[in-house]
Each structure stands twice: as structure tokens, then as C-alpha cells.
Model the fold of this input.
Amino acid sequence: MIETGGDRGEVVLRVMPRLADINANGHIFGGWVLSQMDIAGGIVAHRLAQGPVATVAIESMKFITPILLGDIVSVYAREERRGRTSIAIRIDVVATRGIAQQQIELTSGVYTFVALDANHRPRPLPQEGAV
Ligand SMILES: CC(C)(COP(=O)(O)OP(=O)(O)OC[C@H]1O[C@@H](n2cnc3c(N)ncnc32)[C@H](O)[C@@H]1OP(=O)(O)O)[C@@H](O)C(=O)NCCC(=O)NCCS
Done:
């Protein structure tokens, strides 16, 4: 069953950063969260494309609030637009923080994935509604 988060789409990943993911400020590295977003977007894009995809672009990234050790990080994804061979996935990252389980917007971005054929070249997407 796909767990949904309303307008944010489905929760694709729920993960806790580790000590090794901390930067000099004591916050979590931006690269760590970019990686989690790429993984989550890739899972959704692979399903929609019904096969291999590659990340071709990351647009409109916004780092809203620092991620802290102990945060439970949820990565939401939803299809934003689709072209002939590419799909743009909006990805929102939210922390559940502390005993009060406060929900905090962390990061948001749009990742574009291209469906690939056996030669790693762009492949037309399946018809919408086929999945
Ligand atoms: C993905 C890849 C095969 C695309 O090849 P390409 O020759 O650029 O392909 P095209 O120019 O035909 O573009 C393919 C699609 O990507 C889209 N695209 C290309 N560059 C883009 C960009 N900067 N932003 C948004 N979309 C882009 C095109 O609009 C097109 O979409 P459409 O068919 O829906 O209209 C090639 O760029 C590649 O292999 N890149 C490396 C991918 C990679 O290693 N990613 C990281 C690890 S997954």
C-alpha cells in the first residue's frame, strides 16, 4: 500500500541521519538530503517509466530548515509534469522532531528523470494511465 501525505504525494522514504552525516555546523550535510531525494524520486520515476531512469536535472532546490541529528526524515514525492521521455518529480522533505513529534519542512525540489532504453538512451514513456 502506498502511504500518502496529501498534497505532498506519497511517503517514499523514512530515514534517520547518522553521526557521519553531520557537517561542521552540527547540522546534516546538504549532500545527504540531496541523495535521499534522488533515491526517492528515482523509485517513483522508475515505477512511472516502467523501467530504468537516470536523473538528468535538479531544479529549484530550496533548503528551508537545517536537519538535526535525531530527526526522522520523511521524503515525499509526486509527479509534477511529464514529457515524451522525461518525468519531473516534486520532492518535499519533512522532519518529525522531538517528543512532541513536531513536523518541520526541511527541503523541497524538483528532480527530472529520463526513461532509458537498453543503450542508455532516452526512451518514450509508457502511455499515461498504463500504470
Ligand atoms: C539522461 C540522458 C540519457 C539524456 O540524454 P540527452 O541526449 O540529453 O537526451 P535529450 O536531449 O533527448 O533529452 C531527453 C529528455 O530530457 C529532458 N532534459 C534534458 N536536459 C534537461 C534539463 N537540464 N532539465 C530538464 N529536462 C531535461 C529533455 O527535455 C527530454 O525530455 P522530453 O523527451 O520529455 O521532452 C543523458 O543526458 C545522460 O546519460 N546523462 C547522465 C545521467 C546520469 O548519469 N545521471 C546521474 C545518475 S542516475
Observations:
- Residues 17 and 112 are 25 Å apart (CA to CA).
